[in-house]
Design brief:
- The structure holds two protein chains of two kinds.
- Chain A has one domain: Rossmann fold, CATH 3.40.50.2300.
- Helices cover 41% and strands 19% of the residues of chain A.
- Chain A is built from five helices and five strands, in the order E-H-E-H-E-H-E-H-E-H.
- Chain A has a five-stranded parallel sheet, with helices on both faces.
- The longest helix of chain A has 15 residues.
- Chain A starts with 6 loop residues before the first strand and ends with a helix.
- Chain B is an alpha/beta fold.
- Chain B has four domains: 147 residues, Rossmann fold (3-Layer(aba) Sandwich); 101 residues, Beta-Lactamase (2-Layer Sandwich); 119 residues; 155 residues, Histidine kinase-like ATPase, C-terminal domain (Heat Shock Protein 90, 2-Layer Sandwich), CATH 3.30.565.
- Chain B is 51% helix and 20% strand.
- In chain B, helix 10 packs across helix 14 and helix 13 packs parallel to helix 14.
- Classes of the chains: A alpha/beta, B alpha/beta.
- At the A-B interface, helix 1 of A face helix 10 and helix 12 of B.
Chain lengths: 125, 557
């Protein structure tokens, strides 16, 4: 059964954020993977099938947009959600180029987080 | 402009406007065709003749007001009277050539405003220039009288003008007699000192500087030895006792033989300027804090993010645990009955068991604790950030205090660190330092400025090449000074620019990024503490700023 659960990859350098996201999504029926950097996320994505990536924007090394842009370059189709406290700071052009499916504010609202992830997964299915 | 024109016309030739009748008409009249122009030409070159044959054109010329004398011929017929009127309106005397032998026409002409009449006849050629000359002399006389009157008026105007300047100048002006008393004070001086008009007269200027020894009262020194001062700053006591900062210039007042008769003091109230200076400092402080605010906000936002999410979850956990507790209650009720119903108890226990499984109570209890621990850690982080920020906002900025420079540097670096921790490695070499007497807030402002600059230099270089940003903080005692160095491996500063970086408003940053006041303010702040700020930089390698602060004596206030 587990194999059929959608796989969601959470990326943030702040492990308490990962832990809180995991808590929020506990009842959503996802298989949850985590990475604490863009580089770590790319490794995971290379190793296994992922249905959705949720990434923080500001991280040491490559940031969230850079991670998504890299996915776009490699032709990945996986939907991606950017988590940022300053969404207005990212130009619309960059969002488009990085193929960002949805933006989520930080701090996030639990209900909005859940519905956004659901609709992203439904859209890709 | 008007005065200039008038002067020009006084010197210019006099203009005589001659209006001649049509030749056939003149020929029919006594005297026949006359050559008025050549008769008047004998008056010389100063007289400019303008001959008109078209009465309409002559009228226009007259109305232009350029004629000093009009010569009109009776033979002009109907047109004569309108031309005479026009000469009157243009204030040009009219000389009338009379053809008729009786006096009736001449009388009529005089009544209508003619200045003089000359009858045609054998002596007409001589009489006309004489009459014309007489009229022109009058014109000239009237003009020169006007000129003299105007000259007198101009001298008066000039006097009034000078007085006006002194009365209305934006600076206070006081003339002081050799006995140090006020001989004259302009209204501005009265206002600055808070005096009624005339109240300052004969006032001893020493009263404005109570408690100051005479040799420090600059106007007295000017009286004493003729010394000039420009832009000196003093504190003046107003008549109401209020103290105000002034900028003062003094020069000796000498008569035409060069003997000193007193002194002239010009001063400005600097209260507003001083306020502006303080505002500039405040603006700069706000600008640096603004740069930090973004970094600090990011840093607070992360813990806020997970604390908020955790609280939402804990509220759900509580709902689930409540369901378990409700089943516990059910079980307790069943177990408390006087006659225990074994089936009921077993059902209640099974309910409880099912609910514990459904909500995964073991996980909830365990994770409840974890979520609280993580949230507490987050709130602790926020508390620390706020505590560091408070160091900036709530300290007394006006008092010198024995300061632990290492701590001032470290807590500032800690705040700035929040915004650069992703791209910069910070290394610290702190030597043990004795407390330094200084203004701690200003010192922190300087450190913050240097750190933000270092960070920006690193960011700028990192945009062009792969870079591991490094900032080194170094403190030590050298002789009688404490030395603080902030070094970065950013872009470095162009040698051509290096000499100007401490100038106010000089900036190489984009519009909106820098105020151009950061380093000049830092420079002034360090100087205020009796210290100095130095820079050493190499383009492409990095920059080191060095703050040197005097240790001062033990127990220095």
């Amino acid at each position: 059964m587990t194999a059929e659960l959608p796989v969601v990859l959470l990326v943030d350098d702040e492990r308490h954020i990962l832990s809180a996201l995991r808590r929020s999504l506990r009842r959503e029926g996802y298989q949850i993977l985590t990475a604490n950097s863009a580089e770590g996320a790319l490794e995971t994505l290379a190793e296994q099938k992922v249905d959705l990536v949720v990434s923080d924007q500001k991280m040491p090394g490559a940031n969230g947009i850079a991670l998504f842009a890299e996915l776009e370059r490699s032709g990945a189709r996986v939907p991606r959600v950017l988590l940022t406290g300053w969404p207005e700071e990212i130009p619309a052009g960059e969002l488009r180029k990085a193929g960002v499916t949805a933006l989520l504010p930080k701090p996030w609202d639990d209900a909005q987080l859940k519905s956004t992830l659901r609709s992203c997964l439904a859209g890709s299915a | 402009m008007a005065a200039g024109e008038r002067t020009r016309s006084e010197q210019a030739a006099l203009r005589v406007l001659i209006v001649e009748p049509p030749e056939e008409e003149a020929a029919r009249q006594p005297g026949g065709v006359l050559d008025v122009a050549s008769a008047l030409r004998r008056l010389g070159r100063e007289i400019q003749l303008e001959v008109h044959r078209e009465p309409a054109v002559a009228l226009r010329a007259m109305a232009g007001g350029h004629a000093d004398l009009a010569v009109l011929d009776q033979a002009l017929g109907d047109r004569f009277w309108s031309l005479l009127d026009a000469a009157g309106s243009a204030a040009a005397p009219a000389l009338v050539v009379v053809r008729a032998s009786d006096e009736a026409f001449a009388l009529e002409a005089y009544r209508a405003g003619a200045a003089d009449c000359v009858r045609v006849g054998s002596e007409f050629g001589d009489l006309l220039p004489i009459a014309a000359l007489e009229q022109l002399r009058r014109v000239r006389h009237i003009r020169s009288k006007g000129a003299a009157a105007r000259l007198g008026k101009r001298v008066d105007d000039l006097k009034r003008y000078n007085e006006h300047i002194i009365q209305n100048m934006n600076s206070a002006l006081v003339v002081i007699d050799p006995g140090a008393r006020v001989a004259y004070a302009n209204p501005r001086a009265e206002r600055v000192l808070g005096a009624e008009p005339g109240e300052l007269e004969d006032e001893d200027v020493r009263r404005w500087f109570p408690g100051l020894p005479p040799e420090e009262i600059l106007p007295l020194r000017t009286l004493e030895d003729g010394h000039r001062f420009r832009g000196a700053e003093m504190v003046l006591t107003r008549l109401d006792g209020a103290l105000i900062p002034i900028g003062l210039s003094c020069s000796p007042l000498v008569d035409s033989e060069g003997v000193r008769e007193g002194a002239v003091a010009i001063f400005q109230d600097l209260t507003e300027i001083k306020q502006l200076q303080r505002q500039v400092l405040q603006t700069e402080k706000m600008a640096s804090i603004g740069q930090l605010a973004a970094g600090v906000a990011h840093e607070i936002n992360n813990p806020m993010g997970f604390i908020h999410a955790n609280l939402c979850q804990l509220s759900e956990y509580l709902d689930d645990l409540q369901k378990v507790w409700d089943r516990v209650d059910g079980l307790r009720t069943a177990a408390r009955r006087e006659r225990i119903d074994g089936d009921e108890v077993r059902r209640a226990a099974a309910d409880l068991e099912a609910m514990i499984g459904e909500v995964d109570a073991a996980f909830l209890l365990n994770d409840f604790g974890t979520a609280i621990r993580e949230s507490l850690e987050g709130s602790g982080r926020i508390r620390e950030i706020v505590r560091d920020l408070r160091a900036f906002s709530h300290q007394d900025t006006t008092q010198r205090a024995p300061t632990d420079v290492n701590r001032a540097l470290d807590s500032t670096a800690h705040i700035v660190w929040t915004m650069m921790r992703h791209s910069v490695v910070l290394t610290k070499h702190y030597e043990e330092l004795p407390p330094v007497s200084c203004f701690p807030v200003q010192l922190q402002q300087v450190f913050m400025n240097l750190l933000v600059n270092a960070y920006q230099a690193i960011e700028a270089r990192a945009e062009q090449e792969e870079l591991r940003g490094e900032i080194q903080l170094h403190t030590e005692v050298q002789g009688e000074e404490v030395v603080v160095r902030v070094s970065d491996n950013g872009t470095g500063i162009d040698p051509q620019v290096l000499g100007r970086i401490f100038d106010p408003f000089f900036t190489t940053k984009q519009v909106g990024v820098g105020t151009g006041l950061g380093l000049s303010t830092s420079f002034n702040l360090v100087q205020q503490q009796g210290g100095s700020l130095h820079v050493d930089s190499e383009p492409g390698r990095g920059t080191t700023f060095e703050v040197r602060l005097p240790l001062g004596e033990e127990g220095d206030p």
